[in-house]
Amino acid sequence: xxxxxxxxxxxxxxxxxxxxxxxxxxxxxxxxxxxxxxxxxxxxxxxxxxxxxxxxxxxxxxxxxxxxxxxxxxxxxxxxxxxxxxxxxxxxxxxxxxxxxxxxxxxxxxxxxxxxxxxxxxxxx
Length: 125
Hints:
The structure is a single chain. By secondary structure, the protein is mainly beta. It folds into two domains: about 5-45, Roll (SH3 type barrels); about 55-125, CATH 2.40.50.140. Helices cover about 15% and strands about 50% of the residues. It has two helices and eight strands. It has helices at about 85-100, 100-105, and strands at about 5-15, 25-30, 35-45, 55-65, 70, 80, 105-115, 115-125. The protein is elongated and about 70 Å long. It starts with 6 loop residues before the first strand and ends with a strand. The relative contact order is 0.17.
Protein backbone atom coordinates (compact mmCIF):
# COMPACT_ATOMS: atom_id res chain seq x y z
CA UNK A 1 0.00 0.00 0.00
CA UNK A 2 1.48 3.29 -1.09
CA UNK A 3 -0.39 6.53 -0.39
CA UNK A 4 -3.47 4.48 0.58
CA UNK A 5 -3.58 2.75 -2.83
CA UNK A 6 -2.99 -1.01 -3.14
CA UNK A 7 -0.16 -1.61 -5.61
CA UNK A 8 1.53 -4.44 -7.47
CA UNK A 9 5.33 -4.44 -7.16
CA UNK A 10 7.12 -4.35 -10.52
CA UNK A 11 10.76 -4.04 -9.39
CA UNK A 12 12.96 -3.60 -6.33
CA UNK A 13 16.51 -2.33 -5.93
CA UNK A 14 18.71 -2.55 -2.85
CA UNK A 15 21.54 -0.12 -2.28
CA UNK A 16 24.18 -0.03 0.42
CA UNK A 17 24.77 3.18 2.26
CA UNK A 18 28.00 4.56 3.63
CA UNK A 19 30.12 3.32 6.50
CA UNK A 20 27.50 3.86 9.26
CA UNK A 21 24.35 4.13 7.18
CA UNK A 22 21.56 1.67 6.59
CA UNK A 23 20.77 -0.09 3.34
CA UNK A 24 17.95 1.44 1.32
CA UNK A 25 15.32 -0.27 -0.82
CA UNK A 26 13.73 1.37 -3.85
CA UNK A 27 10.38 -0.12 -4.89
CA UNK A 28 8.62 0.62 -8.19
CA UNK A 29 4.98 -0.41 -8.30
CA UNK A 30 1.72 0.19 -10.19
CA UNK A 31 -1.63 0.96 -8.55
CA UNK A 32 -4.18 -1.83 -8.96
CA UNK A 33 -7.19 0.49 -9.33
CA UNK A 34 -5.68 3.59 -10.98
CA UNK A 35 -2.67 2.12 -12.90
CA UNK A 36 -0.43 4.98 -11.72
CA UNK A 37 3.28 4.19 -11.44
CA UNK A 38 4.70 4.90 -7.99
CA UNK A 39 8.24 4.85 -6.63
CA UNK A 40 9.18 4.67 -2.97
CA UNK A 41 12.55 4.56 -1.19
CA UNK A 42 12.83 3.49 2.44
CA UNK A 43 15.28 1.81 4.88
CA UNK A 44 15.53 -1.95 4.37
CA UNK A 45 14.33 -2.74 7.91
CA UNK A 46 11.06 -0.83 7.52
CA UNK A 47 7.65 -2.45 7.68
CA UNK A 48 5.12 -1.86 4.89
CA UNK A 49 1.33 -2.19 4.87
CA UNK A 50 -0.06 -5.17 2.98
CA UNK A 51 -3.76 -5.14 2.09
CA UNK A 52 -5.93 -8.16 2.78
CA UNK A 53 -7.36 -9.51 -0.48
CA UNK A 54 -10.73 -11.24 -0.28
CA UNK A 55 -11.39 -13.27 -3.42
CA UNK A 56 -14.82 -14.50 -4.46
CA UNK A 57 -17.15 -15.47 -7.26
CA UNK A 58 -20.30 -13.57 -8.11
CA UNK A 59 -23.28 -13.59 -10.40
CA UNK A 60 -23.92 -10.56 -12.59
CA UNK A 61 -27.29 -8.99 -11.73
CA UNK A 62 -27.25 -6.18 -14.27
CA UNK A 63 -24.83 -4.08 -16.27
CA UNK A 64 -25.28 -0.32 -16.71
CA UNK A 65 -23.19 2.21 -18.60
CA UNK A 66 -21.31 3.39 -15.49
CA UNK A 67 -21.45 0.41 -13.09
CA UNK A 68 -21.96 -3.33 -12.79
CA UNK A 69 -24.14 -4.85 -10.06
CA UNK A 70 -22.97 -8.26 -8.84
CA UNK A 71 -24.12 -10.70 -6.13
CA UNK A 72 -21.56 -12.62 -4.07
CA UNK A 73 -22.38 -16.34 -4.35
CA UNK A 74 -21.32 -17.09 -0.75
CA UNK A 75 -22.88 -14.22 1.21
CA UNK A 76 -25.59 -13.18 -1.31
CA UNK A 77 -24.46 -9.59 -0.78
CA UNK A 78 -25.15 -7.23 -3.69
CA UNK A 79 -22.26 -4.95 -4.74
CA UNK A 80 -21.90 -2.10 -7.23
CA UNK A 81 -18.57 -2.31 -9.07
CA UNK A 82 -16.93 0.11 -11.49
CA UNK A 83 -16.07 -1.07 -14.99
CA UNK A 84 -12.62 -2.71 -15.16
CA UNK A 85 -9.71 -1.00 -16.94
CA UNK A 86 -8.68 -4.13 -18.89
CA UNK A 87 -9.96 -3.94 -22.49
CA UNK A 88 -10.49 -7.71 -22.77
CA UNK A 89 -12.76 -7.72 -19.69
CA UNK A 90 -14.63 -4.66 -20.94
CA UNK A 91 -15.31 -6.35 -24.29
CA UNK A 92 -16.61 -9.51 -22.56
CA UNK A 93 -18.88 -7.47 -20.31
CA UNK A 94 -20.23 -5.41 -23.21
CA UNK A 95 -21.00 -8.65 -25.06
CA UNK A 96 -22.91 -9.88 -21.99
CA UNK A 97 -24.73 -6.55 -21.73
CA UNK A 98 -25.90 -6.94 -25.34
CA UNK A 99 -27.00 -10.56 -24.77
CA UNK A 100 -28.84 -11.00 -21.41
CA UNK A 101 -29.27 -14.78 -21.98
CA UNK A 102 -25.50 -15.24 -21.78
CA UNK A 103 -25.34 -12.99 -18.70
CA UNK A 104 -27.46 -15.41 -16.66
CA UNK A 105 -24.99 -18.24 -17.40
CA UNK A 106 -21.90 -16.14 -16.59
CA UNK A 107 -20.01 -15.50 -13.39
CA UNK A 108 -17.18 -13.19 -12.43
CA UNK A 109 -14.21 -13.54 -10.12
CA UNK A 110 -13.72 -10.45 -7.97
CA UNK A 111 -11.23 -9.14 -5.43
CA UNK A 112 -12.09 -6.88 -2.50
CA UNK A 113 -9.20 -4.88 -1.09
CA UNK A 114 -8.78 -1.51 0.61
CA UNK A 115 -12.56 -0.99 0.64
CA UNK A 116 -12.87 -1.35 -3.16
CA UNK A 117 -13.99 -4.16 -5.44
CA UNK A 118 -12.18 -5.19 -8.63
CA UNK A 119 -13.45 -7.54 -11.36
CA UNK A 120 -10.66 -9.96 -12.29
CA UNK A 121 -12.20 -12.49 -14.65
CA UNK A 122 -15.43 -13.32 -16.50
CA UNK A 123 -16.28 -16.99 -17.13
CA UNK A 124 -19.17 -19.23 -18.17
CA UNK A 125 -20.75 -21.77 -15.79
